[in-house]
UniProtKB/TrEMBL annotation:
Name the record gives this protein: DUF2017 domain-containing protein
Domain of life: Bacteria
Lineage: Bacteria, Bacillati, Actinomycetota, Actinomycetes, Propionibacteriales
Short name of any one Pfam family annotated for the protein: DUF2017
InterPro entries in UniProt: AosR
Length: 194
C-alpha cells in the first residue's frame, strides 16, 4: 500500500508511489465520477460554438436526484427556491465541468506515469509526481471522490464502530476501507503541499 504523498527534497513537487492495483482503483473511481457528472441533463452539449457555450445560462434549476450529486452540488439558498434555482442555473454546469476535468487530471497523470490500460504485472508500481498546481487539482478531486463514496455508503460522523465491526469480507467494509484510503491520500497530499 502506498505510503501517501511526500514533498520531494529538492523541488516543490510532491510524489507518491502506488501499486498497480491502487493506481487502477484510483483511475476507476475518477472515471466513475466523470461518468456520473456527465450522466445528467445538467451537462451542456459539447458540439457548440464556444461563444454560445460561454454565454449559455440554461443549466438546471432543480436539485439533482442522485444523492451524490446533491452532496457535490448542494442547494445554495435553502429558504428561497427561486434564488436557489437561479444560482444553480448559472453555476452548476460550470462546476460539473470543473469537477470532471479535475477527475480527468487524476486519470491522465496516472496513465502518463505508466499505468497501462489493464495492469497485469502484480509488482508494477506507478510513481506520480505532481507540481503545485496539479496537486491542488488532485486535492479537489480526492475531496469529491471521498464525498461521493461517503454519500453512497451513508457514512456519518462518529459511526466508526459500525464500520470496524463489519467483517473484512463484507463489501461495505471493503468500500469503507477505500473511503479511508482516499482520506489518507488527501491528508498526506495536504501535508506535503503545506
Amino acid at each position: 500500500m502506498t505510503s501517501g504523498f511526500v514533498r520531494h527534497r529538492r523541488s516543490k513537487r510532491v510524489i507518491a508511489t502506488f501499486s498497480a492495483f491502487e493506481a487502477d482503483l484510483l483511475r476507476s473511481l475518477a472515471a466513475q465520477l466523470v461518468e456520473l457528472l456527465h450522466n445528467e441533463s445538467a451537462v451542456a452539449a459539447t458540439e457548440r460554438d464556444p461563444l454560445e457555450a460561454l454565454l449559455d445560462f440554461s443549466g438546471p434549476t432543480t436539485e439533482p436526484e442522485d444523492p451524490v450529486l446533491r452532496r457535490l452540488f448542494p442547494t445554495a439558498y435553502r429558504e428561497d427556491a427561486e434564488a436557489a434555482g437561479e444560482f444553480r442555473r448559472y453555476t452548476e454546469s460550470t462546476l460539473r465541468d470543473g469537477k470532471s476535468r479535475a477527475a480527468g487530471t487524476i486519470i491522465d497523470v496516472l496513465e502518463e506515469a505508466g499505468l497501462p490500460g489493464e495492469p497485469t504485472e502484480e509488482d508494477l508500481v506507478i510513481d506520480v509526481e505532481l507540481d503545485q498546481e496539479t496537486a491542488l487539482v488532485w486535492m479537489r478531486s480526492l475531496t469529491d471522490l471521498r464525498l461521493a463514496l461517503g454519500t453512497r455508503l451513508e457514512v456519518e460522523e462518529g459511526d466508526e464502530d459500525y464500520w470496524y465491526a463489519l467483517p473484512d469480507e463484507d463489501p461495505r467494509a471493503q468500500a469503507h476501507h477505500i473511503y479511508e484510503w482516499l482520506g489518507f491520500l488527501q491528508e498526506t497530499l495536504v501535508q506535503s503541499v503545506s
